[in-house]
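Q: How would the structure tokens look for this protein?
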Amino acid sequence: MTNIDYLTEDNILPDNQKFVCLSFLTKTDDDTQKFNIKGGIKIRGVFSTYELACEYAKKVQSIDTYFNVYVGEMGKWLEFDPDPNSIKESEYANEELNSMMKSYLENQEKAKIFHEHRKNELIRNNILDNLNTRRDNLKDLHTKIKEAVNEDEKQKLESSVNSIEDQIKKLDDKKKNLDKQIEELDNQLHSFKQQPPSNPKIITRED
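A: Here is the predicted structure in token form.
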């Protein structure tokens, strides 16, 4: 099976900004009830080469002993506040992060499909209401035609019948198209449930 990389990269970056030094501030379990914010991130510096970024990270780390300093590649998704004991250099875009991005993209797509499905169902229900109203009107017109006392009145009623029958045909066509769209959306939603988990691609920095 081909590994799929869901972690898109930016192709356009500012000049001489290829690597970034980062530090993170995250809540502890004790902070959960005290603060509403999830945490913070500090950009310590941006550099043209990996070596310059690492050199600067060591310098900052020697001064600021409270926060770890990480080096990551610009324009790529990086793990938020990674465990310093479980990473190697700039290998932040790991298996978990790729899986997280895959799940995020799938949820976005599902939300879009659900919205479209709901919208089509509302339109379909409105069409059904209009169809029922017009069919009731059609029955009334046929009854009036039978009771018509002169030819002019009968012709006017028959003209109204033809107009309503044309409207019913158009509404029926719209309903059929919507039924088809709703079925396709149902199949798409069903495919998300049946889709087997893929093997995510692990992205690492190549020296």
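The beta strands are 19-26, 39-47, 70-73.

The chain has two domains: 19-93, 98-194.

Upvote if useful.
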